[in-house]
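in:
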């Protein structure tokens, strides 16, 4: 586990440096927007998605820094989704990662525009760097599909609409695999594509990403039910009226489903990468055991 933490911090450090390079500085005009963008991005966070991108690329033999622009783009898009998700007309959250949300600090209008700006900047960053143009285009298509081709945005809409009915297992599965899972899945696939993995290998890594993405959201539901609010860093006990895995499967059922997904993800990595995939297997276990 100590080795895993050290590797995570190594990847995370690369991502942090990249974010600082690609984000506008706070002293540029309009300062309110750029302060809000940096506040949103640098308010903490695990950097799980870009770390997955770099780790997958390295597992397939690539220098992870070659994928840094694409990993940064994924984190910018993830942050955009959080800023908008926290808005009063969606989840209406006051805290994110233990800090006031962007709309609480900068107001609703700047928060909306902050999300828009992060989304737009991500597309510029995604085509930066030295990867072949054809690879960049394929990566950009993968990221876009994760957002709005049976992706994050459709999952968010389904989540909102689930409040108006009694959601069932299929509702929960659609929301979780799209609102949360799709971008995690894309993060792994982008790493494989950027490293030049074969089509069969990309398909296998997609399966890994799909499994850990769903497991991650189920663990979020479990933490919402039984986690420590200070450790998690946001308001909990708020998803019982949503399509939560705990609401639909029960706490034990949600844990069993998560275990099944994590074990399946580890099996995929064993099959495709063997020892080279040790970090990805530890990441799956981290998702199973995390408390924040």
């Amino acid at each position: 586990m100590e080795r895993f933490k050290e590797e995570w911090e190594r990847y995370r450090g690369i991502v942090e440096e990249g974010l600082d390079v690609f984000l506008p500085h706070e002293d540029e005009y309009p300062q309110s927007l750029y302060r809000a963008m940096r506040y949103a991005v640098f308010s903490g966070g695990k950097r799980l998605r870009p770390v997955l991108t770099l780790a997958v690329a390295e597992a397939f033999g690539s220098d992870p820094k070659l994928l840094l622009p694409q990993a940064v783009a994924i984190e910018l898009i993830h942050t955009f989704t959080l800023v908008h998700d926290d808005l009063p007309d969606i989840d209406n959250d006051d805290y994110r990662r233990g800090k006031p949300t962007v709309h609480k600090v900068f107001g609703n209008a700047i928060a909306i525009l902050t999300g828009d700006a992060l989304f737009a900047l991500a597309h510029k960053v995604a085509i930066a760097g030295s990867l072949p143009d054809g690879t960049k285009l394929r990566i950009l298509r993968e990221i876009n599909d994760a957002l709005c081709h049976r992706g994050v945005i459709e999952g968010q809409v389904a989540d909102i609409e689930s409040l108006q009915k009694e959601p069932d297992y299929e509702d929960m599965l659609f929301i979780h695999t799209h609102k949360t899972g799709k971008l995690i899945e894309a993060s792994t696939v982008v790493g494989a594509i950027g490293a030049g993995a074969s089509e069969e290998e990309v398909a296998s890594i997609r399966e890994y990403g799909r499994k850990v993405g769903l497991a991650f959201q189920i663990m979020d539901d479990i933490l919402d039910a039984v986690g420590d609010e200070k450790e998690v860093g946001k308001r909990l006990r708020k998803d019982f009226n949503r399509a939560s895995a705990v609401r639909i499967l029960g706490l034990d059922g949600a844990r069993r489903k998560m275990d099944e997904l994590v074990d399946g993800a580890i099996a995929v990595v064993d099959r495709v990468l063997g020892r080279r995939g040790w970090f990805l297997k530890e990441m799956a276990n981290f998702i199973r055991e995390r408390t924040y």
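note: The domain at 2-289 is CATH 1.10.600.10 (Farnesyl Diphosphate Synthase).
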